[in-house]
Amino acid sequence: MSHSLYLLRRLKGDRTYKYRISAFVVFVSMQLFTSLVLHFHENGQLRYLEILNIVVGIVIACVFIIGAIDLSKRNIHFENVKNERIEIESKFENSQDQLFRIDSETREEVGAWLHGTLQPQLTRLAKEIRTQEVTDLDRIALRVDEIGEKFVRTYSHSLYPPALMVSLEVGLETLLEGRATLVLDERLTNAASVGFDIWSPGLGMPESSRELRLHLGGEYAFAVYRIVEEAVANAEKKPSTSAISVSVCIAGDALHISVRDNGELIPENVNFGLGLSVIDSFVQSFDGTMSIGNIADGVELAASLPYRQETVAEMLLKRFQGGGLSE
Prior knowledge:
Blueprint: H1 2-10, H2 17-39, H3 47-130, H4 137-156, H5 168-176, E1 181-184, H6 196-199, H7 218-237, E2 244-251, E3 254-261, H8 274-285, E4 289-295, E5 298-306, H9 312-321
Parallel strand pairs: 1-2
Antiparallel strand pairs: 2-3, 3-5, 4-5
Helix pairs in contact: 1-3, 2-3, 3-4, 5-7, 7-8
């Protein structure tokens, strides 16, 4: 009862409130007047019309009140939707401002790094070459590797590849184009079925014979990308390397990464550089395992990361049941 009274009080904010109240008062007045006339009429047989008039008046009044309560509910719902829209628009505008700010700051940071860190190193190397302080090609190549290792690679670690935002498949294909062959588990490619029929059977879509696409989180996909990137970069450093192959597959409860090259074998007691340290840090962050060793025709780096298989359809179903796609 108190809730109904609250809804009726909320109607005061409706622009048609006065007109509705006026019409209701006029209707009640007319019903009372008609009932009084019939009650005191000389013809007593008209009393049944009085009763009928009162019953009809009560029914219409109840319908009016129920309609007013429903209107109040609709007004409240409309206000909530309006407020949600305003909130979403505000968040969108704030997000746009943040994106513009981040983009501007990133451009400034990259520009400052190129001008203040990388350029002096390249200028110093160019000067040494021109003044013939450095004439040995091996030493020049060593200096270039040092600049790439110490400055370019270190800085690039903090950058997220744009192609990876689309999918792991696009990210790896972009990374390895012209550098290595890629064998990617079909369940991680666009060839796999998203499997909408699992979480929306009402659509009546036919069952697909394709494998269901597996879901990788952003951090997980980035770790796979960085491991492959570092392993390929290390393989390319060997002058004898002419072919590199990359394999990413899922078996059991693990995702397996293999990077093979046909370059020179690893000598005993070799000191591994920054690249393997980066790979090891990503592997350890997921409690995985890593190994590198000689094979029949070259060198293989193998890494395994624990992975609980979850399809895209299952992920979407969880998010919809949880109240939306806000995660």
